[in-house]
Amino acid sequence: MRAGSKVVIEDGQIIKVEKDKNGIITKTILTKDWHDWIDYWAIDFNYEDKKEIIKIKIESGDTSLG
């Protein structure tokens, strides 16, 4: 048997499934609280330091911005 692990979604939970060299499978639930579903990179606590760039497409011949 080959040992290894993978992460799956089962019944709305993220579960790490591991199999050891003896073929014993263990499951560990990784989502224990609501904030476990939030990716660490999806939150920017320093958002005020970044400039926001807004691009407006102006059709040819249109000189108004409103």
Write the layout of secondary structure elements.
Layout: E1 4-10, E2 13-19, E3 25-29
Antiparallel strand pairs: 1-2, 2-3
In spatial order, strands of the major sheet run 1-2-3
* Beta-strand content bin: 25-35%
Largest sheet: 3 strands, antiparallel
Q: What overall form do the CA principal axes indicate?
A: elongated
Measure the end-to-end span: 67 Å
- Rg computed from alpha carbons, rounded to a whole number of angstroms: 24 Å
Helices and strands, in order, run as EEE
Number of discrete helical segments: 0
Mean pLDDT over the residues:
80
Fraction of residues in helices? Answer: under 10%
Ranges where pLDDT stays below 50 over 5 or more residues in a row are none
Structural class: mainly beta
For this entry, give a set of tags.
66 residues; mainly beta; three-stranded antiparallel β-sheet; 3 strands
Could you explain the architecture of this structure?
The protein is built from no helices and three strands. With 66 residues, the protein is mostly beta strands. It has a domain of 32 residues. Strand 2 and strand 3 form a beta hairpin. The model has no long low-confidence stretch (mean pLDDT 80).
